[in-house]
Structure formats: structure tokens, C-alpha cells
User: Fold this.
Amino acid sequence: MTTIGDVAKAAGVSVATVSRALRGVDRVSPRTRERVLAAATELHYVASPAATSLVSGRTRGIGVITPYFNRWFFATVVTGIEKALRDDGHHVLLCDLESHTFDTRLPITQSMLWKRVDGVIILNVPPDAQERDLLDRMGLPVVTVGNRQPGWPSVRIDDRAAMSMAVEYVVGLGHRDIAYAGTVPSSVSHLQTPFDRRHAFDEVLAAHGIRNRPEWTLRCDWTADGAAEHADRLFAGSDRPTCVVAASDEMAFGVMSAARRHGLDVPGDVSVIGIDDHVHSRIHDLTTVRQDVEAQGRHAGSLMLAALHGHEVSSSHDEVLGVELVVRGSTAPPKKQARPSQTTGRPTRTRTAPKASASGAVQATA
Assistant:
């Protein structure tokens, strides 16, 4: 195997000069750099990534901290980050914090990141005070996705606006008996989205004077299986909601499955709406509020690269991407108000919320 010493000998320069020439450091004359590159090419020399990182202080890795990796949202964000980074020669180092139970997570530790990454992108995880102190002491650039953390630039949607759009739509169809899927235990302190979406649901119902019934609130782990299991009790008796608002499309899939197991027609007997526009939502004919998940990852990756290349990225940068209502066949007016043409399949149509500026917020109206 050719070594850097072999290249130095062939080019008639020192090992340090070869290192500087191959890294593009300015303190090498063009003629010397050309001679070094020619020697390296002739000898088929490939620099060791580990050795290069020791010399440059850069690993070319970006730590992506996620509460879950095996869920569609987080995997899609990571895909967007990877696409933004790879053309610049950087790669993702995944740090999965998933624990044994939904309401707990692993801590962010120094061993995950120290001398392994040049920056950190955090997905929907509010670090606690100790973790925040660790990240600040490490001096790495940090970007957050999914929620706003003071002092770090962020990319997200307005979760409350997204939920408000969903609820306003079904209220506009005439629904007043509305259930909710997506409440989580108060111990789930490592995720902000469930609380923001539930708060918006409560606010819209209160604004319309609609009764918010605790027995129609489903607490689950934000999976399709979990929502299906908990939705069984909604549909077991005669006192049923005419609509279920799910805080994610995956939970909406579970609700639709439970409804059909109980012999209920969607949307004839019960309407279902979600948030996300999951990759399978069109197949399930699910009405939803769409967010561009992969774009959030791409934007976060671009912010990280800007910081690594020395461009000024304000710590108050808050990039709020727009959302849009996508109407499909899982929603209709309540049965007593429905006309035949309204309870059959309809073409998809969308309603868009305007995108906000980097420092603004989405103003979504149904």
C-alpha cells in the first residue's frame, strides 16, 4: 500500500508539504502542489480519512440526534439532511435516542459526538439543561428540526397552525362530535409536537363552543397499531364521534382500521383526518394536512453547511415551512347532513397555508 511518505519521496518534498498540498492549504506553491498531485496520482495514493481528520480537525461527519429512527417522519428528515450534505463531502452519523418505552429516551452524551462530528442536527428533541450545557461546551454548530430552541437556528412547521387547519376543516363540514387521537403522557418530556398539536385542538373546539369529551381522547404511542388498539373503545358502543382528528397520519391509519373492524364506513359513519401526508396517505385516501418533511431535512442540512463554511447563520434564525390541506375521501359532512354526492369518493384537492419568512410564523386558515 502506498503511504504519504512514498508520495513525499516521489515529489521531493516533506510529508507535511504533501499533507498541505492534498488538503488545499494555501501555504503551498501551485508548482509544488501540481508535483505532489501528480505523484499521488501515479502512485494511486488515497489519504486515510482518519489521518486527514487528525490533521484538519474536521471529521466531515454531522451528528443527527433523533428520538426514533424507525418511524417515517424521522427517517424522511434524515434522508433530506443526507441529500444536502453528501454533495459537499459530508455524511450523517446517526445518534438514535430511542429507549425501551415510548415515554423515555437515552441521554445525549459526549461519547456520541466528541471528535466524531463537526456539527449537530437535533430532530424534535428538546435537550435538558445538562445536555444543553454539554453541547455549548463542545462548541459545535447546532441546528434543530421540528421545534424551536433558544440560541440555535431551527427549521420546522407551525404544529399548532397545522392542527388548527385540520380541525377548522372538519368543523366547517358540520362535525360537532369530534374525537382526538394523539394525547401522550405528561412524562413524554422529550417531544414537543404532541403537546402543541393537542393544545391547538383544544383551542379550536373551545373557540367554536364544541364540547371536548375526555372519553373521546385517545392516548397512544403515535403508531398505527397503538391508535388502532385504543380506537376500538371509541367504536364499540352506540355513542360514537362522527369524526376523529388524528395528530399524525400513522395514527389516522390505525383509527380507520379500527372503524372498519367495527363495520363502520369511512367517511359515511365516521370521518378521519390526519397531519403529515405520509407516503401511504394517498393509498389510504386520507384527508390530511401536508408538511414537506424531506424539505425540512434539506434546509437543516444547508444551514449546517453554511455554518461550517464560515457563513453567518443567526442563532435566532427560525425557518417555518408552510403546510397545506389535502382533501381526499376519508372526510365528509356528518351523516345526517350529507348529500349522496358528498359521501362518495372525491378527487384530491389542496388548500395551502402561506410559507413564513425565516423569522415569521405560519398563519393558517381553513
In short: The longest strand covers residues 61-66. The chain has three domains: 4-56, 61-157+296-320, 159-290+323-352. The radius of gyration is 26 Å. The first helix runs from residue 4 to 11.
